[in-house]
From TrEMBL, chain A:
Family: Belongs to the SEDS family. MrdB/RodA subfamily.
PANTHER family: CELL CYCLE PROTEIN (PTHR30474), PEPTIDOGLYCAN GLYCOSYLTRANSFERASE MRDB (PTHR30474:SF1)
Top-level taxon: Bacteria
UniProt keyword Lipid biosynthesis, yes or no: no
Annotated pathway: Cell wall biogenesis; peptidoglycan biosynthesis
Enzyme class: transferase
Region forming the signal peptide: none
Protein name: Peptidoglycan glycosyltransferase MrdB
Annotated EC: 2.4.99.28
Reactions catalysed, as given in the entry: [GlcNAc-(1->4)-Mur2Ac(oyl-L-Ala-gamma-D-Glu-L-Lys-D-Ala-D-Ala)](n)-di-trans,octa-cis-undecaprenyl diphosphate + beta-D-GlcNAc-(1->4)-Mur2Ac(oyl-L-Ala-gamma-D-Glu-L-Lys-D-Ala-D-Ala)-di-trans,octa-cis-undecaprenyl diphosphate = [GlcNAc-(1->4)-Mur2Ac(oyl-L-Ala-gamma-D-Glu-L-Lys-D-Ala-D-Ala)](n+1)-di-trans,octa-cis-undecaprenyl diphosphate + di-trans,octa-cis-undecaprenyl diphosphate + H(+)
Major place of residence: membrane
Membrane-crossing residue ranges in chain numbering: 30-50, 62-79, 85-105, 150-169, 175-192, 197-215, 285-306, 318-345, 351-370
Length: 381, 629
């Protein structure tokens, strides 16, 4: 008897059929929801300080989080088989929209990422792909035998990199990396052979310098340059990273206290309420604050893995793992870039950074996770 | 290893997946540890470093310049003050687009090409970062208003009220006060580190005159202010403040009234007046004309203004009183006379016959007296009163250059007087050694003869002549001309002791006759004088007349005319002022320079009603170590 079966037989464990609480009836996962709410609350607290004490900013973010929760609630009601059914069509629609962005997209800050739809306003089709790509690859593998054969791998790679390339040319390096990662996680979870993984790593190491010289845009290249040597231009490109490291470092173990961070409050830290909000947290709440944040994040990630592990069919399993892993990649890339470990790519700190679409997308992914978890049936195979 | 294609092996898939999930979870843990490790490194290991960086970011230490000391005359009349000047300044580090900003400022206030040029020069020269660079000063109220209204469109631009050095009397004191101007990078480079720290934040530096000499007293000590600023450099609050120690106010020995009299008396002529109180060396008046407008220099003089001064033939930037080297002419005669008396070469009774020239034995060259037909029989008294050259040719020759040089040195001729000003000229008191070294030729008798009437190689500054006169008027008591009222400076050498002390008195009375005698060369000075004064006139040749030529002053260009000189002191009984006057190309000492000296002495010695009222010497703290028995 496997561990899983043992667990399944324990009372109070598992799906909604085993419990009768309100969260269960609403197809919500209580631990995950609690962690998300805690994170949102903490995020708003930091945002209040990062925004220079602007209550308006906090309210707008709260509204956005509320909207995200609503999306989560709705998506949690939809059974996983519907996702599986709709995955190819949403993926196809997404690709079409991405092509449209390339053709008729609206420019903002030198990149065409937005699509204006009359009556619906503008949105970034790339956000849909954050969910559609892993869903599509998961769907693809759910139809195949695992571990995947080489041809299947190649098809999956094509499915992943078609939208990734379309997004990269917008150009939006951060999002395309995240989407590629989401798709590749599915590939990995599906059992991609270690030999191929090793090959890919070697290929990447060779490709990276070539990418740098021949593919990257100037502004992207300068970001990498800045990452490698931020002190080269302390007043220009290196400013962000120097100031954010200074903010974090000066926070120490216990931090300077809420609303007491001089780096952010005196405007030395740019983007302090969006991509660099972690620096505000690090400055005002110190290492303690950061460890608390990491704990909440890891609880969410852990719960995600648990849901994935408990999932009953391949599609849910792979998608849940991919969404969870993508969430962690968000965290890793953002913390890495703000603390100067990684180059600056525009990745927000999930559910804490001030800003629109990523919150909704993330909440949607948690809605899907909850759906997978709460729609399980007690069955044996 | 191939598996059957038809059936899904759920258990196998589950095992692979679980293992991959485990790998994924381990990866998450590992990467999380990397992040935590990074944060620990930043927040624990590097904490103090980043705390410092953060504080450096927000806390700026600003130097607060001390207010510069005021300069007054002896009666408290302000000669140099500080007054606020509204200037538009740019903090370059905060200006996003310099050219656009300059254009925009140009639309709000008038910017001359000169302003821009000066600004760009300051921009390119080394400077402290975040230091505001002035673009234009002397803003009017309307201009200030226009700039203030548009402040939000001009980041990094501000209107600041800075104290600016101001000289209310302009040209009147220009050569003695000198001026301050902007502290330059070269000035800072030349300083020690402590001095540099003290000048952090200071904008002005004494460049010439009293401003330069007493820079250390006028400057004061820098203060510091720690301020918290935001990223745009705006000061949010003051964290700590150590106020500056203001510069000392400096009271000078100068007397506004005497200075004004000297300045006015010279009029538009080129020349210099130095008046000294022989009782203590106080400098009462120190004038060189033409003067210059010192206020023009304070914030950097414009090219046109500077060119105008440089190209002016009257050379207004030249300090004639301090640095002008002129042949003293007949004004040295009283000193040569005393030298001869003291050396026993002559006495008051000895007479010689003056045929209008002097000849050395066996030499056809004739050294001419200014009076073509001669003075006839001449003794010491007559020789001084009527300024007989022949008598002094004879006396000088008998005395010899060595004794002449030695005696005149004691009157501070040929060496700096030690006045509290820099770049004083030492004049020239010729000697055999000097001529050999400087000219490479031996000393001739003719050189001695020329020197004995203050011509030839001999050169003196008006300041030296005034000092020598003060020493003579006080019977050999040494004085050092001093401008700062609280400085009592030790005399540079022992007092002069004559073998016969009476000679002082008799020479004084002889000089009194120069003014008050019926045939004195300065008798024009005596008119309606309520006190007695002594004087000696002089003319110094600019142009030397050939042996057989006659001197025709009409034909000489004005610039080649003799300089007029006079040295004088009063009242004869208890001298309280010694004056030297030089008027370039003024021709006759008595008629040109004499009235100037008289007006200067009147200004000092007479009260408002024209009554004699000799002011007491300045009360001064006794100098430490003042002990010449």
């Amino acid at each position: 008897m496997s561990v899983r079966e043992t667990l399944r037989q324990m009372p109070g464990q598992g799906g909604p059929s085993l419990g009768n609480g309100l969260p269960a009836r609403l197809h919500l996962d209580a631990p995950l929801l609690a962690a998300l709410l805690l994170l949102a609350l903490g995020g708003l607290t930091v945002l209040y300080s990062a925004g220079g004490g602007s209550m308006e900013m906090v309210l707008r973010q709260a509204l956005r989080l509320g909207g995200g929760l609503l999306v989560l609630l709705v998506l949690a009601q939809i059974p996983p088989r519907s996702y599986r059914f709709w995955a190819p069509m949403i993926y196809a629609l997404g690709v079409v929209l991405l092509v449209l962005v390339v053709l008729i997209g609206t420019e903002a800050k030198g990149a065409a990422r937005w699509l204006h739809i009359p009556g619906l306003g503008r949105f970034q089709p790339a956000e849909i792909m954050k969910l559609a790509v892993p869903a599509m690859v998961a769907w693809f593998f759910s139809e195949r035998n695992l571990p995947p054969r080489l041809t299947d791998v190649l098809v999956a790679l094509a499915l992943i990199f078609l939208p990734v390339v379309l997004i990269a040319v917008q150009p939006d390096l951060g999002t395309s990396i995240l989407i590629a990662a989401a798709g590749l996680v599915v590939l990995f979870m599906a059992g991609l052979s270690w030999r191929l993984i090793g090959l890919a790593v070697v290929a990447l190491m060779i490709a990276a310098p070539l990418m740098y010289f021949f593919v990257l845009h100037d502004y992207q290249r300068s970001r990498v340059d800045t990452f490698l040597n931020p002190e080269a231009d302390p007043r220009g490109a290196g400013w962000n990273i120097i100031q954010s490291k200074t903010a974090i470092g000066s926070g120490g173990v216990t931090g300077k206290g809420w609303l007491e961070g001089t780096q952010s409050r005196l405007d030395f830290l740019p983007e302090s309420s969006t991509d660099f909000i972690l620096a505000v947290l690090g400055e005002e709440f110190g290492l303690v604050g950061f460890l608390l944040l990491m704990t909440i994040y890891l609880v969410i990630v852990g719960r995600g893995f648990f849901i994935s592990w408990q999932a009953q069919e391949t599609f849910s399993r792979l998608l849940a793992a991919a969404l969870t892993m993508t969430f962690f990649i968000y965290i890793f890339v953002n913390v890495g870039m703000v603390s100067g470990l990684l180059p600056v790519v525009g990745v927000p700190l999930p559910l804490v950074s001030y800003g629109g679409t990523s919150i909704v997308t993330l909440m949607a992914s948690f809605g899907m996770l909850m759906s997978m978890h709460t729609h399980r049936r007690l069955m044996s195979y | 290893m191939r598996r059957p294609l038809t059936l899904k092996d759920h258990h196998h898939e589950q095992r692979i997946f679980s293992f991959r999930l485990l790998v994924g979870a381990l990866l998450v843990v590992a990467l999380s540890l990397v992040l935590v490790g990074r944060m620990v490194w930043l927040q624990v290991s590097q904490h103090s470093r980043y705390t410092t960086l953060s504080d450096e970011n927000r806390v700026q230490t600003q130097a607060v310049p001390p207010p510069r000391g005021l300069i007054t005359d002896r009666n408290g009349e302000i000669l140099a003050a500080n007054r606020p000047d509204f200037a538009v300044e740019l903090i370059i580090e905060q200006v996003p687009d310099l050219e656009a900003t300059l254009t925009r400022i140009g639309q709000l206030v008038t910017l001359e090409p000169d302003d821009l040029e000066r600004f760009r020069k300051r921009l390119t020269s080394p400077r402290r970062p975040w230091d505001p660079i002035p673009l234009r000063g002397r803003l009017g109220e309307e201009e200030i208003a226009r700039l203030t209204v548009n402040q939000h469109r001009l980041p990094g631009v501000r209107v600041a009220a800075n104290p600016v050095r101001h000289y209310p009397h302009g040209k009147l004191f220009s050569h003695v006060l000198g001026y301050v101007n902007r502290l330059s990078a070269e000035d800072l480079d030349a300083m020690t580190l402590t001095e540099q720290a003290d000048y952090a934040g200071t904008h002005y530096y004494g460049r010439t005159g009293v401003e330069r000499y007493y820079e250390h007293r006028l400057h004061g000590q820098v203060g510091y202010r720690q301020v918290e600023t935001n990223a745009r450099g705006r000061i949010l609050r003051v964290l700590e403040e150590q106020p500056p120690v203001p510069g000392e106010n400096l009271r000078l020995t100068l007397d506004m009234k005497v200075q004004q009299a000297a300045y006015d008396a010279l009029g538009d002529r080129r020349g210099a007046v130095v008046a000294i109180d022989p009782r203590d060396g106080s400098v009462l008046a120190f004038v060189s004309r033409p003067g210059f407008e010192p206020n023009l220099f304070v914030n950097g003089i414009s090219h046109q203004d500077y060119a105008r001064y440089r190209e002016d033939h009257d050379n207004p930037l030249f300090n004639r009183a301090l640095q002008g080297r002129y042949p003293p002419g007949s004004t040295v005669k009283p000193f040569i006379g005393l030298a001869g008396l003291d050396a026993g070469v002559t006495d008051w009774e000895r007479t010689i016959f003056d045929p209008g020239y002097y000849q050395l034995e066996g030499n056809p060259h004739r050294y001419r007296d200014w009076k073509r037909w001669g003075h006839g029989w001449v003794d010491m008294n007559k020789a001084v009163v009527q300024s007989c050259d022949t008598y002094f040719y004879d006396l000088g020759f008998k005395l010899g250059i060595a004794r002449m040089h030695h005696f005149l040195s004691d009157f501070s001729l040929g060496q700096p007087t030690g006045i509290d000003l820099y770049n004083e000229s030492a004049g020239l008191l010729p000697s055999k050694d000097w001529k050999r070294a400087a000219r490479g030729t031996p000393w001739f008798h003719g050189d001695t003869i020329n020197a004995s009437i203050g011509q030839g190689f001999m050169l003196a500054t008006p300041l030296q002549l005034a000092t020598a006169t003060a020493i003579l008027a006080h019977h050999g008591k040494q004085v050092t001309p001093t401008l700062a009222a609280d400085e009592l400076r030790p005399p540079p050498r022992p007092d002069i002791e004559l073998n016969n002390d009476d000679d002082w008195l008799r020479m004084e009375h002889t000089m009194e006759e120069v003014v008050h005698g019926s045939r004195g060369t300065a008798r024009v000075m005596a008119e309606d004088a309520p006190y007695k004064m002594g004087a000696k006139t002089g003319t110094s040749q600019v142009f030397s007349v050939g042996q057989e030529e006659t001197y025709n002053e009409e034909e000489l260009a004005e610039r080649l005319l003799d300089h007029a000189l006079i040295i004088s002191f009063a009242p004869v009984e208890h001298p309280a002022i010694a004056v030297a006057v030089l008027v370039e190309n003024g021709r006759h000492g008595g008629s040109t320079a004499g009235p100037v000296a008289r007006q200067v002495m009147d200004a000092w010695l007479l009260d408002d009603n024209g009554e004699l009222d000799v002011p007491p010497p300045l009360p001064r703290a006794p100098a430490s170590g003042d002990s010449t028995p």
